[in-house]
Amino acid sequence: MYRTHTCGQLRIENVGQSVTLAGWVQKSRKLGGMTFIDLRDRYGITQLVVEADAEASLIETATSLGREYVIQVTGEVIERESKNSKMATGDIEIKVSKIVILNKSVTPPFTIEDESDGGEDIRAKYRYLDLRRGPLQRALALRHRLAQEIRTYLDGQGFMEIETPYLIKSTPEGARDFVVPSRMNPGQFYALPQSPQTFKQLLMVAGYDRYFQIVKCFRDEDLRADRQPEFTQIDCEMSFVEQEDVLNTFEGMMRQMFRNAVGVEIPDPLPRMRWYDAMDNYGSDKPDIRFGMTIHEITDKVQGFGFSVFDSVEYVGAIAVPGAASYTRKQLDELTEWVKRPQVGAKGLVYIKLNEDGTIKSSIDKFYTQEQLQAVAEAVEAKAGDLILALCGPKRKAQTMLGVLRIEMGNRLGLRDPKVFAPLWIVDFPLFEWDDETQRFYAMHHPFTAPKPEHLEWYYSDRKEDLERVCANAYDFVLNGTELGGGSIRIHEAAMQERMFEILGISKEDAEYKFGFIINAFKYGAPPHGGLAFGFDRVCALFGGQETIRDFIAFPKNNQGRDVMIDSPSEIDQIQLDELNLDLRPLPQK
């Protein structure tokens, strides 16, 4: 062994012991003839000291060390005169008697420290160096602990971990598939799975009543901070269960993960909120309930007074921003421009200030009396010193815009503390979404989601208004404004599945081509079943108090879907193209 202890292991009780350590040189410094070296591995940092009266060769070797040299040292553990309470090993140091240089290092392109001087691009290019830094080591250690908690809990609940294939059939529903050409089957392609959805249902048909895997999934879609082209799911499925069984099982899993991985107790039971209430009150189906500032409809309070912007719309809603009546005109103008951005999509913003002296100042003063504005204030539960912000339009669109504005104001006021956790379940989603452009229904989740049993009469109705009322037997686990996981009770009867395809406008021929294997499987005694999948990368990021998932993935892609470290994706040579029977057409000129 190259070492007897790690660099984070030694304590005051080890004083007097002869030890051998190995690791990377964090930094070295000379002080009064003595050389001090910080030696680092993933477990921590230990200070080494080469004394002024040491052998000349030892001093020469210590002086030659550069940052990131890999070395092995032997010496005696001694008590430090100047202790460092910020280091776990800060009470001791190693009086070095021998140094072996195992490998030299060129000067790294950025400092390997918690607060690095390297920008995001350069750190991504040298990701193997970035992974030496403390924040990323702690992030991946958290990911590991969470994975172990998941496996321990699910094994204790009788789940089997079963792998499903990565090379499957393309069924382009939802996001784009990544496709893989088949050399052995010219002109034909595999697809990488967007999820193991159909396979886990087939496992239920096969009698494996409790399945899970921590599995890679792939979606060819635009990227952002919490999205990668390849990502990891905690994928689960259960037979002979109803919605309540699934929620209780995985609420227990999340409770154990919170308790054992981050030392946090979450409510028991977790709150539940209907999708319709989430949209009405928070403008989002993944509400952040760590703070109030809920949305209130004020349509009946503001229409009929001559303000055409409000009089001509379906819905007017508002939020009360606590303590923000002091906002200046410049700040309000900036906020108005912010909501006009394409990401929000508002045409303008109406404000009402409830000044501390009891007066009310508004951008719509000339249309409304003080009493009428006070009625609006009461409707949104605003107090003196608050700022009311109102948006209007089609109901769901206006609510969604208000939801985005609410989150922005929560950020600006510091109300979204990453150390506070507020999980909940969202239930009773609509089963279908109507698209005016294509004049057809789409599945809000996926075409294997079952309707609520009490809504079956509407499900088999031919009336559009009845189908719009059908709720899905579905549920999402939401934490701090992020959807961490979602699932549903599945359709397990062939007739109900055929009705779903009929509503979605999928012909029998298309259904047979895309999903024939699972439709046929349902004919062989499929049990009632349901499940869900959690986004494991998002779970790790939120547990770690971060918004981006990249630090919790060892080798992530950038916003263009590239791995700049290995320069991928890349071209392949003509021999490979010929083997795959592929011809490339010229790229369009920019």
Would you count the extended β strands for me?
A: 22
N-end to C-end Cα span: 58 Å
* Number of helical elements: 18
Beta-strand proportion: 15-25%
**How helical, in percent, are the residues?**
25-40%
Mean of all residue-level pLDDT scores = 94
Spatial sequence of strands, sheet with the most strands: 6-9-10-22-21-20-17-11
**Low confidence ranges:** none
User: C-alpha Rg, in Å?
Assistant: 30 Å
Largest sheet: 8 strands, mixed
Quaternary: single chain
How would you describe the shape?
Answer: globular
Structural class: alpha+beta
Walk me through the structure.
29% of the residues lie in helices and 24% in strands. By secondary structure, it is an alpha+beta fold. Helix 4 (134-156) crosses helix 17 and helix 7 packs across helix 12 (395-412). The longest helix is centred in the N-terminal third of the chain and has 23 residues, at 134-156.
